[in-house]
Amino acid sequence: MSIKNNFTRKDLSKKISLNMGYSLSISDKLVKEILNIILTEVKVNSVYLKNIGTFKIIKKKERIGRNPKSKKEFIITKRNSISFICSKNLLGKINDK
Description:
The chain is an alpha+beta fold. It has helices at residues 9-20, 24-44, 88-95; strands at residues 47-49, 53-60, 63-66, 73-76, 79-86. The protein contains three helices and five strands.
Protein backbone atom coordinates (compact mmCIF):
# COMPACT_ATOMS: atom_id res chain seq x y z
CA MET A 1 0.00 0.00 0.00
CA SER A 2 1.40 3.36 -1.05
CA ILE A 3 0.91 6.54 0.95
CA LYS A 4 0.58 9.72 -1.08
CA ASN A 5 2.48 12.61 0.50
CA ASN A 6 2.16 15.31 -2.14
CA PHE A 7 -0.84 17.57 -2.58
CA THR A 8 -0.79 18.48 -6.26
CA ARG A 9 -2.38 21.24 -8.28
CA LYS A 10 -4.75 18.61 -9.67
CA ASP A 11 -5.76 17.63 -6.12
CA LEU A 12 -6.45 21.29 -5.32
CA SER A 13 -8.60 21.60 -8.45
CA LYS A 14 -10.59 18.51 -7.42
CA LYS A 15 -11.16 19.89 -3.90
CA ILE A 16 -12.36 23.24 -5.28
CA SER A 17 -14.63 21.40 -7.71
CA LEU A 18 -16.17 19.28 -4.94
CA ASN A 19 -16.51 22.07 -2.36
CA MET A 20 -17.69 24.86 -4.64
CA GLY A 21 -19.64 22.89 -7.24
CA TYR A 22 -17.58 24.11 -10.21
CA SER A 23 -16.65 21.77 -13.03
CA LEU A 24 -13.17 20.27 -12.86
CA SER A 25 -12.03 22.25 -15.92
CA ILE A 26 -13.16 25.57 -14.40
CA SER A 27 -11.52 24.69 -11.08
CA ASP A 28 -8.29 23.82 -12.89
CA LYS A 29 -8.34 27.13 -14.80
CA LEU A 30 -8.99 28.98 -11.53
CA VAL A 31 -6.00 27.35 -9.80
CA LYS A 32 -3.72 27.99 -12.80
CA GLU A 33 -4.78 31.64 -12.96
CA ILE A 34 -4.23 32.21 -9.23
CA LEU A 35 -0.76 30.67 -9.44
CA ASN A 36 0.08 32.74 -12.54
CA ILE A 37 -1.00 35.94 -10.77
CA ILE A 38 1.14 35.13 -7.72
CA LEU A 39 4.14 34.25 -9.93
CA THR A 40 3.79 37.42 -12.01
CA GLU A 41 3.52 39.63 -8.92
CA VAL A 42 6.37 37.95 -7.01
CA LYS A 43 8.72 38.58 -9.95
CA VAL A 44 8.17 42.32 -9.41
CA ASN A 45 7.94 42.45 -5.62
CA SER A 46 7.10 40.35 -2.56
CA VAL A 47 3.48 39.21 -2.40
CA TYR A 48 1.76 39.54 0.97
CA LEU A 49 -1.55 37.69 1.32
CA LYS A 50 -3.25 38.83 4.52
CA ASN A 51 -3.80 35.98 7.01
CA ILE A 52 -2.03 33.54 4.66
CA GLY A 53 1.61 34.54 4.28
CA THR A 54 4.27 36.15 2.12
CA PHE A 55 5.90 34.93 -1.10
CA LYS A 56 9.26 36.46 -1.95
CA ILE A 57 12.25 35.85 -4.18
CA ILE A 58 15.56 34.84 -2.64
CA LYS A 59 18.72 35.36 -4.68
CA LYS A 60 21.12 32.45 -4.17
CA LYS A 61 24.82 32.89 -4.87
CA GLU A 62 27.03 30.58 -6.88
CA ARG A 63 28.58 27.88 -4.70
CA ILE A 64 30.45 24.61 -4.77
CA GLY A 65 28.34 21.46 -4.43
CA ARG A 66 29.41 17.87 -3.91
CA ASN A 67 27.94 14.59 -5.10
CA PRO A 68 27.59 12.55 -1.88
CA LYS A 69 28.19 9.23 -3.65
CA SER A 70 31.19 10.03 -5.83
CA LYS A 71 32.49 12.99 -3.76
CA LYS A 72 32.94 14.93 -7.03
CA GLU A 73 32.70 18.69 -6.65
CA PHE A 74 30.83 20.90 -9.10
CA ILE A 75 29.63 24.47 -9.31
CA ILE A 76 26.00 25.25 -8.55
CA THR A 77 25.17 28.38 -10.55
CA LYS A 78 23.56 31.45 -9.02
CA ARG A 79 19.79 31.42 -9.23
CA ASN A 80 16.57 32.80 -7.86
CA SER A 81 14.37 30.79 -5.54
CA ILE A 82 10.92 31.48 -4.14
CA SER A 83 10.22 31.49 -0.41
CA PHE A 84 6.93 31.33 1.47
CA ILE A 85 6.63 32.58 5.04
CA CYS A 86 3.42 31.55 6.75
CA SER A 87 1.43 34.22 8.63
CA LYS A 88 1.08 34.02 12.40
CA ASN A 89 -2.69 33.82 11.99
CA LEU A 90 -2.44 30.73 9.75
CA LEU A 91 0.10 29.13 12.08
CA GLY A 92 -2.26 29.75 14.98
CA LYS A 93 -5.07 27.96 13.14
CA ILE A 94 -2.78 25.00 12.39
CA ASN A 95 -1.61 24.72 16.00
CA ASP A 96 -5.06 25.04 17.63
CA LYS A 97 -6.28 21.72 18.89
